[in-house]
Amino acid sequence: MLDADFFRRWMAATGAAVDREADRLTQLDSPIGDADHGSNLQRGFTAVRAVLDKDAPDSPGAVLALAGRQLISTVGGASGPLYGTLLRRAGKALGDAAEVSEAELAAALRTGVDAVAALGGAAPGDKTMLDALVPAVDALEDGGFAAARSAAEHGAEATTPLQARKGRASYLGERSIGHQDPGATSSALLIAALAETAQAAA
Ligand code: ADP
Ligand code: MG
């Protein structure tokens, strides 16, 4: 079972990964965006870590809901409301249980991913974060954390030949082809941090 501390460590590991990869995320956002994805997420996850340390929510659902609200209020770009919705809705789906199972986490993330699709109007294949998140949740349901991590990484890489149909990159039309999507890349970091946290706990 996974407790609030597990979820806090997941958010901290995501923040550390975003710090490590911020330059790369911003570089990916240069040719097909406005070169702010790394700094957007760095600002967001720095604020997430600070508020989780200060408020110390005592259930998995409360950790994710607070993290999501913090991303919505601190990240200006499109990715803030989208990631914020992912975590906030997943957190609400987990309710106030003190511990949750891996299957409950997978179901909650499915709810969150569906909410991201509803908010942004995107589907897999549109060259967005959903190209990493949807395969990751599919794999988490079937195969566990390590499978989710590799599904997210493959999903992010597979955005390169796609033409963007949502978000800023879609303004470029065919010129968006040939570049990996920054949001799918950061989603793979979020899922990799989950897998690392699970591995460290095992
Ligand atoms: P902005 O585009 O406002 O500068 P960011 O650079 O932080 O925001 O984030 C860009 C990422 O957000 C994209 O790479 C893409 O993955 C994701 N994104 C943008 N629009 C959507 C959408 N409608 N649905 C899902 N993801 C989206
Ligand atoms: Mg951007």
Q: Could you describe the 3D structure shown?
A:
This protein has 202 residues and is mainly α. It has one domain: Serine Threonine Protein Phosphatase 5, Tetratricopeptide repeat (Alpha Horseshoe), CATH 1.25.40. The protein is built from eight helices and two strands. A two-stranded antiparallel sheet has the order 1-2. Helix 3 (60-74) packs antiparallel against helix 4 (79-94). The longest helix is centred in the first third of the chain and has 25 residues, at 4-28. The chain is globular, with a radius of gyration of 15 Å. The mean pLDDT is 97. Residues 29, 33-34, 36-37, 77, 168 line the site of magnesium ion.
Offer a quick outline of the entry.
InterPro entries: DhaK_L_YcgS, DhaL_dom, DhaL_dom_sf, Dihydroxyacetone_Kinase. It contains eight helices and two strands; from the N terminus they run βααααβαααα.
Secondary structure: elements and pairs:
Layout: E1 2-3, H1 4-28, H2 37-55, H3 60-74, H4 79-94, E2 99-100, H5 102-120, H6 130-142, H7 145-157, H8 182-201
Helix pairs in contact: 1-2, 1-3, 1-8, 2-3, 3-4, 4-5, 5-6, 6-7, 6-8, 7-8
Bound molecules: adenosine-5'-diphosphate and magnesium ion.
Number of H/I helices: 8
Rounded to the nearest angstrom, the radius of gyration is 15 Å
Shape: globular
What number of structural domains do the residues give? 1
Percent of sequence in beta strands: under 5%
Round the mean pLDDT to the nearest integer and report it.
97
Helix amount: 55-70%
Pfam family, one: Dak2
Domain DhaL: 5-196
Organism: Streptomyces xanthii
GO molecular function: glycerone kinase activity
